[in-house]
Structures are given as structure tokens and as C-alpha cells.
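=== RUN LOG ===
request id: a7f3
mode: sequence -> structure
chains: 1
length: 122
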Amino acid sequence: MDRNKKVFVFDDNPDILELCTIILEDAGYEIKTSVTSNDIIGQVSAYMPDIIFMDNWLPDVGGIDATRSLKSDDTLKHIPVIYFSANNDVKTLAEQAGADDYLSKPFDIQELESIVVKYISN
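=== RESULT ===
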């Protein structure tokens, strides 16, 4: 049996984190969540997820800077980062950050699952 694919969700909204956890665990993924993107390299290196969801509005270090840090790190830049935000401009923000894709909030369960499958299916 393959190890479960791992998803890391960064969002400062506990309700979103809980929702993502329920949906993704139900779909058979391991999930880790964080309400801050401080020490983003350390956080991600410790878990080595298969995919990352990055909120735009995070305390201290925002989603754009956090994503840029990941994408400039040789050991982590291969991990797909999905930018997600309720901002109308989420596509532009994702491009600025160098994210691999984006997901608008509010999202539905199907959208969340299909974007995960798209990036981490074998």
C-alpha cells in the first residue's frame, strides 16, 4: 500500500482548516494545517507534503512571500502550491506569488478534491 499523500494547508481561519481536514481525510489524504506561514521553509521541510494550499491573508508573512520562499528553495520548489483566497483577484495573486494554481473561496468539496487529484495523482 502506498503511503497516504500528504496535504499541507496554510490558513488563518480555523473553520477553513477544519473543513479542509474533514474533506481531505475523508478522501484518504494525510493533512497538516497551520495558521501561520512563519518559518515556512522549516514548517514545510518537516512535513514534506505532496501539495500545499496557501491562503493569501496570513499574519506576519503573507501568502505571496511565503509562496515565493518555497519556490526559491531547491528542496521544496517541486511541491505544487495552490493559492487560495476569497480575493476576486486570486488568479493574479497566484501568478505574482509563483503558485502552481489557485482555488477561489468559497470552494466546493469537488473543486478541492479535483485540484488535489490533478497535482498528486500517480
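=== NOTES ===
The mean pLDDT is 94.
The domain at 6-120 is CATH 3.40.50.2300 (Rossmann fold).
=== END ===
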